Records
---
Amino acid sequence: MGFFMKLSITINKSLLFLSLFIVSTLPARDAWDWKNIDTSTVVFDTNKMLFGVALAEYQNSGATNLPNSNWAHWEKQPGAIENGQTSGVACDFWHLYKTDINLMKDLGCNSCRLSIDWSAIEPQEGKFDESAVQHYHDVIDSMLAKGITPMVTLHHFVHPQWFEAMGAFEKQENLKFFVRFCVFVFSKFSSKVHLWCPINESGPLAFQSYIIGHFPPTLGYTHLGFKFSFGTAGQVLGNLMKAHVLVYNALKQMPNGDKAQIGFNHQYLNFEGYNVWDKPIATVFRYTFNTVILEFLKTGIFRYDAYGFKATRIIYKDILSCIDFIGLNYYSEVIIRGGDARCYDHEVMTDMQYAIYAEGFYAAIKDLSQFKKPIYITENGIGDAKDDRRETFIKRYLYAMSRAMHDFNADIKGYYYWSLMDNFEWEHGRLHKFGLYEVNFDTLTRTLRPGAACIKQFFKPLPA
Ligand code: GCO
């Protein structure tokens, strides 16, 4: 991420000067007494729970391996990626997957969340590439041979360029193409894969693509091209909710549909305003990134009311019957402070524009537990190039997860760390380092970071 800061600066520019005079601040958020918390006794039983890493094909294999994707076209534009970088082969998981599966095994993983890339499977509309299908069979079979259960994401921010050209998720009539792809993949892999995430993070996908301008098709939030639109973002988000329901129903009717667990993935991203002037902007962001989706999960009605754009669509009133589990992506909670994304003084920032905030992870799990569905933590990790905060992050967040399981019986079935290795972090290119393994992008060698090693001690098969 990093997208909200620029937008908030723009919106808050006029308030920035005034905020310098603010003396009253809002109370600091919930903070645990970490000095007196012992995280060394926390352990999760891998006989009862999945532990893995989360990957996304484009981030790990890049434009060179996925030339027919919308990202491969989009990232070439000047200004699209920081420092003028391009993804290239990224860390070349496409070819090095066997090495990487061994690395997962070394960490003690018994699962992996990966994405099957639509542009690889269907590079041209209606033409499915059997060699790509075979490739994914090889990847999944290699995982299974090592005792690694795959969870497959069907859309992780990337789709074929032909789908982009026809307006992608802007148009309801295009959803049938996504459903057809999902049905095709399910028909090939459902005997081997039982955990599915149709769409990764609908909120960030819609807002990055149509408001912030860090994702295709828009370029730059200040480029007021015809694609930039709060209204279109809402329309896309509503269509993504609809797509989830269509895909769920289609897959459930197929052979192995009864065995499949099909989840709804959500990046739980809360925003708070540091002082009274920042509160309105925090409220708007909280609404668009989080509240809209949580309200949808409660009612099945998609209500979008932001920036003067209003829309109400009944998607499916019994929405929870179309969700077998909730996939929670959680990183932190953002504090808008003086028009910028910061943290409180006593907190530690990550390399992204948010702090280490495990208390928020606990709160997010609690909030999502209201839906009474199993929860998989489908992403959780830290960008930390210096590797001087990773160990603290891992210990605190895993402690928070165990506390949620203990305090209110949070039904957590699995945990996926983002990510196995450094990769292509979208508009930031290779700037941000989320990997447990550091990647040398010249030689593609992977090296376990000292701050990452502690994760192994948290996940173990315990005696019955
Ligand atoms: C997201 C994505 C990942 C990111 C990760 C780190 O949450 O934006 O699912 O693709 O790389 O979150 O920012």
---
Amino acid sequence: MFSFISKKYIKEKLKDTPYKIAVRNSVTSTNTIMKEHAVKENCEFNVLVASKQTAGRGRMGRSFYSPAQSGVYMSVALRNEENENPLLITTDAAVCAARILEKMSGKKAYIKWVNDIYVDGRKVCGILTEGVGKYAILGIGINVLPPKGEFPDDIKDRAGAVFEKKKPHIREDVIINFLQEFMNIYKNRQGETLLQEYRKRSMIIGKEILILGTDEKAIALEIGEDYSLVVKKENGEKVNLSSGDVSIKI
Ligand code: BTN
């Protein structure tokens, strides 16, 4: 049976939090819409959730497949603190998503540097943080359930869903758990602790990777203090890759 994400269910569970939540059946992109709002009004902790996106966006100009009945697509407006690296919002959100998906599904959740979550060897979640004026818009897309039919050809070899079967309010519970856990992390900046967890969950350390854009091969050595990826190239040179520069293929 077709069902949209329930605003009532989410709002009841999150009524004692600072979030101001809007839930839509279908939008172009929750990040695009939130970015438009963020220039106009005070919107810290505004959240836009959609059951479906018609123009979901990923990093590096890619699209993000966002069909109805399967995923959770949401954007959260946060203050873009001048003294803080906005990348930390992405990495905090990655740890947060991995934690809650693991807890809910009982399956191990790994982070593929810098912003993807993998379960059972498949990408189940992507994160896109974008700055606009005083705000950072945290966008997160989670494939909670398998889509109707298959994933599109270009992603079907690596995309997956966290759960195999529908359960009552499973998408709403993912949203609620993510937002509660994220607020907890965000309010109690857990710097070093989160870096340790990010490192532990990292799935590319010790693996051979291909640096897309340059087609160079390298071995991933470690996640640096600043969340850069330290790699050793074939010529022995060690370099720190920054998330904006490259995309990694394992
Ligand atoms: C990636 O995989 O490169 C990041 C994907 C981020 C997708 C989310 S879904 C909610 C928000 N709105 C968007 O258009 N993108 C993000």
